[in-house]
Amino acid sequence: MEKLNQEIMFARESLCGNASNGASWHIHHGDALKVLKTLPSEYFHCVVTSPPYYWLRDYDVEGQIGHEENITDYLNAIAAVMDEIYRVLRKNGLVFLNLGDTYYSGKGKSHGDDPKSTKRRFGLRAVDKSGGLGIGLRPKSMIGIPWRVAIEIANRKWVLRSASVAGFGGGEPWASTRFGNIAKNN
Description:
The chain is an alpha+beta fold. The chain has helices spanning 2-13, 32-37, 71-88, 145-156, and strands spanning 14-18, 24-28, 44-49, 89-97, 103-104, 141-142, 165-167, 183-185. The chain has a two-stranded antiparallel sheet. Strands 3-4 form a two-stranded parallel ribbon. Strand 1 (14-18) and strand 2 form a beta hairpin. The chain is globular and about 55 Å long.
């Protein structure tokens, strides 16, 4: 049984196979920065990633990206991963980075149940501490995380070619002090 559990754990860290057209595929699972450092330079044609949003989920993993005490540390964590993605990506490669924003409430408490996720930790988040996170934000402000990440990685060597917006249905009905989130920047 122990050997089976080890095999299952190994399978979770790296999966591979072949598509119906014969092309090989690989899925790597683990700490992004650690896994990327094991991969060869200029090897991949495409990278698709959706890193954890700033203080919106708790994956119960020590040191997880997204739970930094301040925005600068979060930006540096994401940018460090993007630096490694830059290294492993072919010069003519393509990256899809899906990254949503976070609101600064300034109150540190939930305003009702969130049926979408029981992993949100309102009141415990660094993002809800008073003082606008040290960057002068007023309560109910978008933090602008995707834009801040874009500027940070552009300063590190990335060329930003375009931003796409993913459209959604009718918005979020619980959004009472802002327009419903009917689109998301990708």
